[in-house]
Specification:
Helix content is 26%, strand content 36%. The protein has eleven helices and 26 strands. The longest helix has 15 residues. It is globular.
Amino acid sequence: MKEIECMLDEKNIKVASWIVARLQGEIRPEEEKALEDWIAESGEHREFYERMADREYVAKRLDEYKNYSLDTMRERMLPSIRREGKRTRVIRWSRRIAAILILPLVVGSVLLLREQSGVEFKNPVTADILPGQECAILEMADGWRVDLSSACGIESLQIEGIMLKNDSNVLSYEGVQGAISDSLKFNTIIIPRGGEYRLTLADGTQVWLNSQTRLRYPITFSGDKREVYLEGEAYFEVTRTGKMFEVHCKGMDVQVLGTSFNIMAYRDEPAIQTTLVNGRVQVNSERETGGSIVMEPGYQVQLDTLTGKMEMYEVNVANFVGWKEKLFVFDDENMETMMRKLARWYDVDIVIESPELRKSVFYGVIRKYENISKILDMLKKTQNIDYVIENKRIVIKEAR
């Protein structure tokens, strides 16, 4: 990662102080909020923070500055320090030195000063992992990509002679129907791990896109049906136009006229699920053995990706669409399935140590925008588990 250079302003000084305070367990509520806002501004900020929680990385960065003695650092970097009990807070830095420093050196130096003062440093192995954020990448027909994240400040963009809106984390093509007269051209919206976004298609159809999802769709619809291609998870509210709306997934096609439904079609899941909220849909298997099923609201069709077999079940719809309301809803959810969902949202790797734990089930409703420790702590209280966070890796194990 390209390091974030320390500019000649107080913001970066404050950021360094906030990071140190969080790692020390001494951060104030207003600082916590300010730090989380800073982290959410860009993927670069998020990656930087995670590296600063890695003590080995900080030590390595400090070693790169071995030409600076600790006394020299103190004299040149920290000319004014205020002590508040056991807290040591940086309040004034030399502008001449700040111009040539970067934040890893700042954070590392402050932590080193704290350790030499006898202040306990909390092991960053237990550092928390922040939730995902609203972010997406738009890929044009020619392969050109645009980062739609709010940190990039793109409120509108022009493609193929039409103007798109990107407001409040919603990319909108609405109103461009019929604007392009030549052959059908497709865009792809890509939601990374740790992201979510919303999309309005040219016909007014609303799409909520979950983490690790790709949706390929035409800039404007033409012909006698509307077709899109999904990998991942999305919730659709389809506008009724009289033309068939069809979602293609690997192994399954879903056909509707106007309705609301959720599709989960991740490559690492054993089944593709279509859950109908209202209206009526027809689900088709690409395999001859699967056939077709016409769904009614409150039901879910599952397609086994290995056998191609489709089955329909009556379900509590809220359990499968809660994610778009920024909730995790777990109802008799086994640990393995649950951890796959958390891994996608928090962009982490999760290892479950024992086969018995993988089969254990959990019930609960949790806000998606909580730090992951709150979810894991809830599991500790209700299940016989413990956990260890090691940077972007989490190990789930039986409690001793």
